[in-house]
Amino acid sequence: MDKTINQKAWFLVLPVLLLVAFSAVIPLMTVVNYSVQDTFGNNQFFWAGLEWFDEMLHSDRMWNALGRQVMFSAIILAIEIPLGIFIALNMPKSGFWSSLCLVLMSLPLLIPWNVVGTIWQIFGRVDIGLLGHTLDALGIPYNYTQNTVAAWITIVVMDVWHWTSLVALLAFAGLKSIPDAYYQAAKIDQASRWAIFRYIELPKMAGVLMIAILLRFMDSFMIYTEPFVVTGGGPGNATTLLSIDLVKMALGQFDLGPAAAFSIMYYLVILLVSWVFFTVMTNLDKKGS
Amino acid sequence: MAKITLDNLAHSYLAKPSSEDDFALKELNHVWGDGEAYALLGSSGCGKSTLLNIISGLLHPSQGRILFDDIDVTQATTSARNIAQVFQFPVVYDTMTVRDNLAFPLKNRGAEPAYIARRVQEIGAMIGMEAELDKRARGLTADAKQKISLGRGMVREDVNALLFDEPLTVIDPHMKWELRTQLKSLHHEFGHTMIYVTHDQTEALTFADKVVVMYDGRVVQIGTPQELFERPAHTFVGYFIGSPGMNVIPASVSGSQAQVHGTAVPLSQNFGTLAGKVELGVRPEFVTLTEGEGLPVTIRRVEDVGRHKIVRAQLFGKDLNIVAAEGQEISPDMTRVTFMPDHVNVYVDDWRSEGKAA
Questions:
Q1: What pLDDT is attached to residue A287?
Q2: Are B256 and B161 within one domain?
Q3: Which pTM does this prediction carry?
Q4: Residue of A177, A178, A180, A190 to mutate for B, most B C-beta atoms under 10 A
Q5: What are phi and psi of B177, to 5 degrees?
Q6: Is A147 among the domain residues?
Q7: Quick one: which of A29, A191, A240, B244 is 20 to 30 A from B132 by CA?
Q8: Within the 269-288 window of chain A, which residues sit less than 8 Å (CB to CB) from chain B?
Q9: How confident is the model at residue A289 (pLDDT cuts 50, 70, 90)?
Q10: Which domain holds residue B8?
């Protein structure tokens, strides 16, 4: 087949090219630019090579923040995924109550992130917060501004409150797509409740669960606003997650070089983990067939 | 293996059915004989699947009782009833191998591993999937999956009944024939009570000893294929079974003679005087085209289907089908039809009327 040659067609791609350039490529390249240069002010920059990367790779501060970040993501995934599935399994399947559940569960998802932070910041305060005051009155030591464990529990519970609905909604959608005949066949085969979950519901939900895990991993790994509003990274550095540390470094200390190197590595870690996860899951899927 | 009795059974999907129309399954009394093979035939939405699901306990009836060998099981669970059922669309456990799929119902009932292994091998051979036993079920084709579903239905030997809900819909024609034969031989071998739901008359007539025809939530006739053909109890049976279906002609009847638009049609029996909607039912096979006598028809077209010809005609503005022998000449002069009196059935309000010997 003959192709029509018309170089003017490139102009059709131009708007998108410009948009992507300004929204992604140029900002990203600025960061790359900072990461390989040093400055002593006066807008004068010197080539620094991979010095900042080297420094960051040997920085305890970054490794500690990464450790806290991995722990945070692992904890919230370990809670939100099973809890979301559990909620989806126990939700009414249809009718008024089902719709009501869906609406109620969507509510936390609609609240702006800094508002979520503020809600929990106030909720947990020992002086005026309902939760903090009640716990204090019951004699349970709870003060998220001073106690590391309390601070961690607060931000984890907050994230679970904010995002479990997402997992539940996705899992519910997966469950709804299972035809009745599967449950009927399971009854005929005298399958136990566990077997129904293990051999019918879980395989049918696998696709949406993979999306849920991926979304929750990426989101939690990049989380900033909510914990920052609640604890500001404290007490000490106890809840200083990667992005909080990054902002401190870049905007607090104005260490642009190290911060740029840091954020590039941060970005690569997320990309790498997501890619590995996705590849492993799709391969498992293929092996199944 | 059991005799299954339906006693005053009816079902409505509504919580408070107010009229008969609200019932998906209208009141029904019937005994499914132990070890017999039945076909449940009817158009889509006539209540076949509802009836099947009530028998297997997936659905609890709004009224009436179900008895297995005279024991009331109306409230018993599906597993307590020990029934096997195969559904229209394949249900397989995706993550398991074919072998595990077949073994699943036996494992769940705590059978001996050695017995399970032997039985799974037998069933694997029966459905022609011995080579694929260790493959995962997920990647298989729709008909392979349906064969697994069938296999899982047949793997238990001690079931009270085997129910099939249009199981061969997704299978290709060649395999359909083979699987149906397998099911028949299974029936001969083990003598399970079998109920086979279908809307395909060929399937029903070849599979079953007795065919149960349902229409609009009601069982309209139970009989052998021959009875259904010769003496359809309801105009629906006449229309549904046969290809093409029975001709239904509005008429008035008195004694042993019917009048169709003023033309007399002889009947073989005496019906007295009939009131209500009276119709004659004549199968196309028993309508003869003639040149001189009978009812006037206009021939629309002639279809040659190989073994015979189907003549599509009109009688007083209504369609009439005639089956003519393959060798018969259809000439333009043939503008009239006669019916064989022995094969004219008389229907009052859609139900067959039994006459007295004339």
A1: 58
A2: no
A3: 0.76
A4: A190
A5: -60, -45
A6: yes
A7: A191
A8: 288
A9: very low
A10: 4-235
